[in-house]
Amino acid sequence: MSARFQLRHAAGIYWLLDMEQEIGTYKKPLPMNEAGAEIFKLMQEGKNSLQIAEILVGRYNSKPEDVLSDIVGFEMQLRDFGYVPENKA
Questions:
Q1: What is the CATH number of the domain that holds 44?
Q2: At 22, is the pLDDT very low, low, confident or very high (cuts 50, 70, 90)?
Q3: C-alpha–C-alpha distance, residues 30 and 81, integer Å
Q4: Range of the domain at 36
Q5: Which residues face 32 on adjacent strands?
């Protein structure tokens, strides 16, 4: 697991920080809610989108297709931020 991207919780919000930014540049932390933080943590454990969806469907009492759609959208946000899970590189 890379220490480049770290998740922090402050002021009631989760923040994803890029700890290896280039000197002279600043990338704002990526804010996320509790569900986003949970998805990120599961990705860090090496779980793929389908595995994460299976876990979250029961926790949030949602339809599998809705959960998977949310996960895919969140993954796109993470990629835009520069994060690509090791199991998806």
A1: 1.10.10
A2: confident
A3: 7
A4: 5-88
A5: 14
Residues 6+ apart with CB under 8 A from 21: 27
Number of domains the chain contains: 1
Query: Tokens 């996960």 label which residue?
Result: 71
- For residue 1, pLDDT beyond 80: no
- CB of 30 within 8 A of CB of 16? yes
One-letter amino acid for residue 66 of the chain: D
Cβ neighbours, 10 Å, residue 22: 8
Mean pLDDT to the nearest integer, 47-61: 92
Check residue 88 and give its pLDDT: 52
Would you say the C-alpha torsion 86, 28, 49, 52 has a positive or negative sign? positive
Torsion of CA 76, 80, 81, 84, to 10 degrees: 60
